[in-house]
Amino acid sequence: MQLFINCFEIIDNLSSINMPHILNKHWDTPHKAALQAQAKLVESEILYDANGNAVTCRQLFTHQHISPTIGYRIINSRDPRRLAHSEIRAETRGRKVQFTARDTRAVERVLWRCGFDGRVLSWDALALEAGVDVSGRTVRRYLRQKDYRRCLACQRSWIAPALVQIRVRFAREMLAKYPTPQHWRNVRFSDEVHFGFGSVGRVWVTRKSEEAFCPDCVQQKKKKSEEEDSARVHC
User: Fold this and answer.
1) Domain ranges within the chain, ordered by starting residue
2) DSSP notation for the chain
3) pLDDT tens-digit series, residues 149-175
4) pTM as predicted
5) Rounded to an integer, what distance in angstroms lies between the CA atom of residue 136 and that of residue 124?
6) Among 59-63, 70-74, 221-225, where is mean pLDDT lowest?
């Protein structure tokens, strides 16, 4: 009998409740969860009494002062009204999530659709552009979980040196054909231009580690002479 009592002491020590249920008292959630944990140990048949027989659920019910009907009902229940590690109940405790999955998609749409202009936005400006009512630190914290980070943009020239020589040669040929301004009055040009005031220098972009060579994450590199001209002459 002493070995039988020790078996139940082991069961109580492994459970979350160290005292048995009080007779004629309502079974609250902690006691139900403890009884389910104890029943799993009994079903594993690793505990034996003084006679060498495995401890049964009915012996467990007698030790806990509970009827077999109520005991089996609690054991067979999938969820004893607890939220921790529940299979059928959603967790409602704790602080509410500030940055939801919908907010993450809204911020990513700004990065994908706005191109380079969206990549250079700061964390606060990115949250404002996406319409998310959180701070820039919150946006940075949640985007870091998706491998986004801020880093210096790679500076590369959009035109290859060989293409530059071809364009210069074409310009000289056209200048030989149309030497005076009057020759160019019948010529019309149509192109997209960007007007800036001085050099913007190195910029930070928001990207993932595998997006190092993405066109939206690359900054156009200028020659040193062009940077000096742009800093001196503003168009």
Assistant:
1) 2-76
2) -HHHHHHHHHHHHHSS--SPPPTT----HHHHHHHHHHHHHHHTT--B-TTSPBPPHHHHHHHHT--HHHHHHHHH-S--S--TT-SSS----SPPPSS-HHHHHHHHHHHHHSTHHHHT--HHHHHHHHT--S-HHHHHHHHHTTTEEEEEPEEE-SS-HHHHHHHHHHHHHHHHHS-SGGGGGG----------SS---S-EEEEEGGGTT-GGGEEEP--HHHHHHHHHS--
3) 888 887 777 777 888 899 999 999 999
4) 0.39
5) 4
6) 221-225
Question: How do 154-156 and 218-220 pair as beta strands?
Answer: parallel
Residues contacting 52, CB < 8 A, separation 6+: none
